[in-house]
Design goal:
Blueprint: E1 6-8, H1 14-23, E2 29-31, H2 38-41, E3 44-45, E4 47-49, H3 54-68, H4 71-77, E5 79-82, E6 86-90, E7 95-99, E8 104-105, E9 110-111, E10 114-119, E11 127-128, E12 131-135, E13 138-142, E14 149-153, E15 158-160, E16 163-165, E17 168-177, H5 182-202, H6 206-222
Antiparallel strand pairs: 1-14, 2-4, 3-7, 4-6, 5-17, 6-17, 7-15, 8-9, 10-14, 10-17, 11-16, 12-13, 12-15
């Protein structure tokens, strides 16, 4: 897990992607600007599924189940709340310029600690459309496989490059974590990964048990519930 982002391979299974593909043509899209905050509205040029769309509700159910059963997502995000997933679409010439996501969203309000993009198109089917995240060490361009997800802290500037040809379609959502501090989440993730490696040799060894105890105690210390 990079401190700037984590890629989750195959968050959506092939059968789930097939169901989403069947639902996408029936979605009613509107201009994405209508759901952006004032600053982001000026640089947002895409389409977004209308909130009351029936096909969107079915896609949200598929995504919610995938998130709830993904060990990697739950270990990395430590989710407390997940914003209802949105479906965004970018045709030729569309983009989303540099912006930072709103720190609070929804009603009731939730804090946005993490953002997630789940890619719904084969990357070879469209040109451009990369998700760009600006980090302390430079910008990172991401355009993973269909069904993969990218999870990243909301404090970083990011954008979607202009689509030159084809169509980029993705699910986007935001997460309020049980641990607000990104450095603390990184420590918990690292400990969890080391514990998993140790458990492959002997899951009940004193060292593995001590590491599990340390993870639990730090999570208890830092959790906001």
């Amino acid at each position: 897990m990079s401190k700037y982002f984590i890629q989750i391979p195959s968050l959506l299974r092939p059968d789930e992607l097939d169901r989403i593909d069947a639902l996408l043509p029936s979605i009613d899209f509107a201009e994405g600007k209508t759901t952006a905050s004032m600053a982001a509205r000026e640089v947002k040029n895409n389409l977004q599924a209308k909130e009351n769309d029936r096909s969107l509700f079915q896609i949200q159910e598929i995504v919610d189940r995938a998130l709830s059963t993904s060990p990697l997502f739950n270990i990395a995000a430590l989710p407390k709340r997940v914003y209802p997933p949105l479906v965004s679409k970018y045709g030729t010439g569309q983009y989303y310029g540099w912006h930072v996501d709103s720190p609070v969203m929804g009603d009731p309000a939730m804090r946005t600690d993490l953002a997630m993009t789940i890619f719904l198109k084969d990357p070879t089917s469209y040109e451009g459309g990369e998700l760009i995240i600006q980090t302390a060490t430079g910008s990172v361009a991401l355009k993973p496989a269909k069904g993969d997800a990218v999870l990243y802290p909301c404090q970083y500037l990011h954008c979607v490059n202009e689509v030159k040809s084809g169509e980029r379609v993705a699910v986007v959502t935001w997460i309020q974590s049980n641990v607000a501090n990104p450095e603390q989440r990184q420590i918990l993730f690292d400990i969890n990964q080391v514990h998993a490696m140790m458990s492959q040799k002997d899951m009940h060894s004193p060292e593995a048990n001590l590491l599990l105890q340390t993870h639990s105690n730090l999570f208890r210390m830092w959790a906001e519930v």
